[in-house]
Structures are given as structure tokens and as C-alpha cells.
Design a protein that fits this description.
DNA binding; 0% strand; mainly alpha; 80% helix
Length: 190
């Protein structure tokens, strides 16, 4: 177990590397590039992380957590009695905002080289689900909340792929409208 000082240093390094990834993306990521961004040496990074893949994974997780925090803040703005549909819709600008292209690259990397990077995709679901579950009405059963959260996650992922690959804003807007209607019907089906 690392000391509190060592853990604070690790977090500081990770923040700097995540910032650099958010700006420059995953292409040509290396320990040396990460070390330059963090203002240290690659040996120091190896002391704190289990190699380039571990550092890359941790930095992607950090970027994704930042996105989730911003999305939850957007979903929580306004009156507390907002519908699930309104909350989900309010998250969309955050999902396509800062650093989204890097997170899309990470999912692409996981699909391209699953043996090495599949965890980048698996952890995405584990990171997003608690937030999506927290948006569902507490009166719903756990199973219903899980099903609806999975629907939201899969649908938004599809919209993100469509946004990144085709840029079809009208098609995505139509899809968001359909998702909104489906969620409104689900909420009314108490």
C-alpha cells in the first residue's frame, strides 16, 4: 500500500496525463509523451503505474469520470421533479462536449484490439450505470431501473457513434426525441 503522499503524487500525475490525453488524444500515446505532459520522467510513471497500458487505462477512466460528473450535474440542474426523460436529454450536450472524442477513441481501441483494451469498454458500462440508475425513480423495482438504465446507456452509445461517424445532427435529434417519448411512457406506466 502506498503512502498518502505517494497516492497524492500518483493522482497529480494522473490528472496531468488525463489533461494531455483530453487535448491530444490516444494516437501515439507513450510513457515518454505522458512523462513530458506530467513534467516528470517515464521511470517515475513506471513507479506509480504498471506500464503504459495501465496509465492509459487509468487516464481514460479519469476522463470518463469527469464526463460523468458533468453529465450528472447537467441532469441535476433545475427543479427536482424533472422527468427522467428531461434529465437524460439534458445530459446529451455534455456527452458530446469536452474530451468526448478521446473517449470515443478509447471505445474504438477496445473494439480494434479487444485482447489488450477490452477493459476500456467494459469499465465504461460499470462507470455509467450508477449515474443512470440514480436518475430512475426510486419507486421502481431494481429490475426495472436496471432495464431502463441499460436501454438509456445502449441508446446514447449508439447516438455517440452516429454523432462521431456521420455527424447526422437531424437523425440524432429525431432519435433523442424518440428516446424521450419512450422514457416518458415508461415513467407514466407506474
Amino acid at each position: 500500500m502506498k503512502s498518502p503522499r505517494g497516492e497524492a503524487r500518483r493522482r497529480e500525475l494522473l490528472d496531468k496525463v488525463a489533461d494531455e490525453l483530453g487535448t491530444n488524444g490516444l494516437v501515439d500515446f507513450s510513457l515518454r509523451r505522458a512523462a513530458r505532459a506530467a513534467g516528470t520522467t517515464h521511470k517515475v510513471l513506471l513507479y506509480h503505474f504498471d506500464g503504459a497500458e495501465d496509465l492509459l487505462t487509468q487516464a481514460v477512466l479519469q476522463l470518463r469520470q469527469r464526463r460523468i460528473t458533468r453529465a450528472l450535474a447537467a441532469a441535476s440542474e433545475g427543479p427536482g421533479d424533472r422527468s427522467l426523460a428531461d434529465r437524460v436529454r439534458s445530459m446529451w450536450p455534455t456527452l458530446i462536449g469536452e474530451e468526448s472524442w478521446v473517449l470515443d477513441q478509447a471505445i474504438g481501441l477496445a473494439m480494434y484490439d479487444a485482447p489488450r483494451y477490452a477493459d476500456l469498454a467494459r469499465t465504461a458500462s460499470r462507470q455509467y450505470m450508477p449515474t443512470l440508475l440514480s436518475l430512475c425513480p426510486e419507486s421502481w423495482s431494481e429490475q426495472r431501473r436496471q432495464e431502463v438504465a441499460e436501454l438509456i446507456l445502449a441508446t446514447l452509445r449508439g447516438f455517440l457513434i452516429e454523432w462521431r461517424t456521420s455527424g447526422d445532427a437531424a437523425g440524432i435529434e429525431a432519435g433523442l426525441a424518440a428516446l424521450t417519448r419512450a422514457l416518458e411512457r415508461e415513467e407514466q406506466a407506474n
